[in-house]
Request: fold
Amino acid sequence: MNNKRVVITGIGVISPVGNSKSEFWSSIINGKGGIGPITKFDVSEHTSKIAGEIKNFDASHLLNSKEARRMDGFVQYALAAADEAIKDSKLDLESENPERMGCLVASGIGGLTTIEQQHKILLEKGAKRVSPFLIPMLIINMAPGQIAINYNLKGPNFSVVTACASSNHGIGEAYRIIQNGKADVMVAGGTENAITPLGLAGFCSAKALSTRNDDPAHASRPFDKERDGFIMAEGAAILILESLEHAQVRKADIVAEVVGYGATCDAYHITAPDPDAKGAIRSMELALEDAGVSAENVDYINAHGTSTILNDKVETKAIKAVFKEHAQKLMISSTKSMTGHMLGAAGAIEAAATALALKEGIIPPTINYSVPDPDCDLDYVPNEARKVDFNMALSNSLGFGGHNATIAIKKFNKS
Reply:
C-alpha cells in the first residue's frame, strides 16, 4: 500500500506573543517578543525572574467556571488551541466519521500547577481535602482525552512525553498514523503550563535559565555569544493533519505538507547534548530520507535554538555535519527568541511557524542577535524577517534525556 500524503489544514495557537494564529504570526514576523517579569507568583527567591507568560487567556467560550476549576491550565490551553485549529481547518465534524479522526497532544510536564496546589492542601488541610479530580487534572493524556470528548474524536488518541521534543514527536507520530491509513484526520500538537514556583526553581537550580532579569525583552538570544540560558514559557499549539485525499475531497485550504519525520536518542546524558551531535545529525538525516530529498533541497531550518551555551553550539555543529557546504546557504532561525521556550509545546509552536513561513513566504527572524559567536557562524536571519519564496524546511526539537525529533515540511504542491 502506498503511503498517503499528509497535509496541514488548520492551526491554533495560545502563546506568549498571541492567543490566536493570526496574532502569533503577526508578532513573530515583526520581531515582537513576549518575555517579561513573572507575575503569577513571588519570584524573590528565584535566580531567574522572567518568563514567557500567557496574557489575557480566556476559555469561557469553551468552559464554564466549574469545568475550568476541574481542569489544569495545560489542558485548557490545549482545548483552546484545538478549538481554533478545528475552526481554522473548516472541518465539518458532524459529517465526518469519528472513528477516522484521532488526537495526539504532547506535553513535557503536564499538570504541575495542580500538583503544587493539591500538595499544599494535603500538608495544610489533610488528605481528605485533596480534590477527587487531582489525578485527571494532572495526567498528560487528559489533554488529548478532553479534546476527544469535546469533539467526538474516536480514532487513535494518546500523548508523547519526551521533554522538549514532545510535540515534535507527537506531530511525527500523528503524521505516521495518517500516512499508514489508520486515520483521515489527526488533531496534533503540544501544550505546557509549567511556570510554577517548583518548575521555575527546578530549572533555576539546574542553572539552565537566563538571569538577565533587568532586561527581559533581550534575554532570549539564541546563537548570540552573550546568551546565558533559556526562558521558560507556556502555551499550546495544535495542527490539523489530514490525508491529502481527504483534504481535497472537502476542498480544504492547505497550509503546507508534512513530508518527513526523524527520531533518535543521544544515549549520552540526562540533560546535556552529545557534544558530537550524533543524535541530532541522525534525526535530520532520517527526516530527509523519509521525505525523499537531499540536503541541498532544504531552504530553511526552524532551529531548536534554546539560547543555552551548549544547545546552540551543538545544533550548529549538527547542521554543518548534515548540510556540509550547503549549510552556509541555509536560512536558520529560532522563534524561541520571541516566544521563549514552551518546553513540551515548543515543537508544535515551531512547526506552526514553519508551516506558515512556507505558505506566506516569510522567514521569522532570530531577534536579539547582536554579538556573533565563532561557534555559531551560520545565517540565523538576525533581527528582521526575510521575505523569500521557498519550498522545503526542517523543524528541530531536542529534549532532556537525549531525545531528538525533526519534522520535514514543504510548500504544498498538488503534483
About this structure: Residues 73-89 form the longest helix (17 residues).
